[in-house]
Amino acid sequence: MDKMMKPDSTRKGWLVRTGNDYLFPQGGDVGYTPNLADAGAFESEEEAIEAGRDHCDPGFVVIRDPR
Fold this sequence. Notes:
Layout: E1 5-6, E2 14-18, E3 21-26, E4 29-33, E5 41-42, H1 45-55, E6 61-64
Antiparallel strand pairs: 1-5, 2-3, 2-6, 3-4
């Protein structure tokens, strides 16, 4: 898992959305979930962009965590 991804939804940050899914921490790695509540937040926009490049197809979107 990316050490900067925060599974705790009470913290604000940046989310990576790809298609209908969000990135989320999964067993020491990164997985995908359609549920906003399960999405993992990144501490900075730059970290979220890097994770999107590493784990998503082109066209992913980085957004502020609205939770």
